[in-house]
Amino acid sequence: MRILVTGGAGYIGAHTCLVLAERGHEVVIVDNFSNSSAAVLPRLAHLAGRPFACEEVDLRDRAGMDALFARHAIDAVVHFAALKAVGESCEQPLAYFDNNISGTITLLQAMKQAGVGRLVFSSSATVYGAPDAVPVREDAPLRVTNPYGRTKLVVEQLLADVQASDPGFHVANLRYFNPVGAHPSGLIGEDPSDTPNNLMPYVCQVAAGRRDHLSVFGGDYPTVDGSGVRDYIHVVDLARAHADAIDYLERERQSLTVNLGTGRGISVLELVHAFERASGQAVPYRIVGRRAGDVAEVYADPGQAQALLGWRAEYDVDAMCRDAWNWQSRNPDGYTGTGDAVPDQPPVR
Ligand SMILES: NC(=O)c1ccc[n+]([C@@H]2O[C@H](COP(=O)([O-])OP(=O)(O)OC[C@H]3O[C@@H](n4cnc5c(N)ncnc54)[C@H](O)[C@@H]3O)[C@@H](O)[C@H]2O)c1
């Protein structure tokens, strides 16, 4: 199939492009590079053994999107392109609604115009807010707590309405828990342009000496060691689920919503210690007060993904830390400064 990957130059998108190419699909990337670098492209080509088509278009540019669909006979879309920082979304809600919701509307209009009826959507466990119980199942109440989360919920609802109106339109809503890690080659990974919002890239930067310590928010939760527990999932496992979702839409011709997590909760301190073992570096940390709105434990029930997609996470926390550190130590400044030279080292799969 020829698959359009929106936001394909970003963190999860790049890993997914690679898996799709490895499964024999043709991939077309569309990205405005607002949170990514074109330097990922030669690295992807190196790993896949062939170049990827990439178009620099903003999803909100309807004429640009129509022209893109006219140039490429697209069979299905994997939709990553979005802004994703919770804190920033509280400061700039309109920018988030515009980019994430208007961008999706324009994409759906262009898909309809081109007669494309299969979409895999990057949703998030953030749609559950603070869940009443763990593990979290897909039928748990949805109650978002910030504008970013609201954009994900609104898009899920929008997609449900489009499905209801069009029997030929099918969507896979994938609710990610906490994606971490990097491709085992160390050639692609997460490259936050600013202070990282998520734990793992922050831990990486502390281990690399770019930051002097990690603040652990809350040491008195009723958990294994008092720190918060989350469900971390290796980005390569996550990427694989997108290819499985494409197969599902093609095979079953119906929609689905699934959680993507390991089903295993890991505490912040467990992750820090696993990272120290994997990297051989110390990760100094300080336990500080809880953050407003944080909950003790959130982890997935991934049973539905296994039942419907035949998918389950394979990498454990040690592999997540090993690959995150491999990426960080080979690319201390991320993609910056590497230009777009194809790296010397052979790909590792
Ligand atoms: N990383 C996480 O922790 C996490 C968790 C749950 C859900 N998600 C969702 O997964 C998706 C991918 O996340 P990521 O971590 O790879 O983020 P990312 O920022 O690395 O990737 C997003 C990509 O989309 C591009 N983009 C953004 N707006 C665009 C627009 N209007 N037009 C074209 N391109 C645009 C960016 O340049 C970037 O390359 C997002 O939808 C995010 O909300 C991420």
Automatic annotation (TrEMBL):
EC number: 5.1.3.2
Pathway as given in its UniProt record: Carbohydrate metabolism; galactose metabolism
Enzyme class: isomerase
Keyword NAD tagged: yes
Matching InterPro entries: NAD(P)-bd_dom, NAD(P)-bd_dom_sf, UDP_G4E
Gene3D superfamilies: NAD(P)-binding Rossmann-like Domain, UDP-galactose 4-epimerase, domain 1
Sample GO molecular function, one term: UDP-glucose 4-epimerase activity
Domain NAD(P)-binding: 4-323
Reaction catalysed by this enzyme: UDP-alpha-D-glucose = UDP-alpha-D-galactose
CDD domains per UniProt: UDP_G4E_1_SDR_e
Family as reported in the entry's similarity comment: Belongs to the NAD(P)-dependent epimerase/dehydratase family.
NCBIfam families: galE, PRK10675.1
Protein name in UniProt: UDP-glucose 4-epimerase
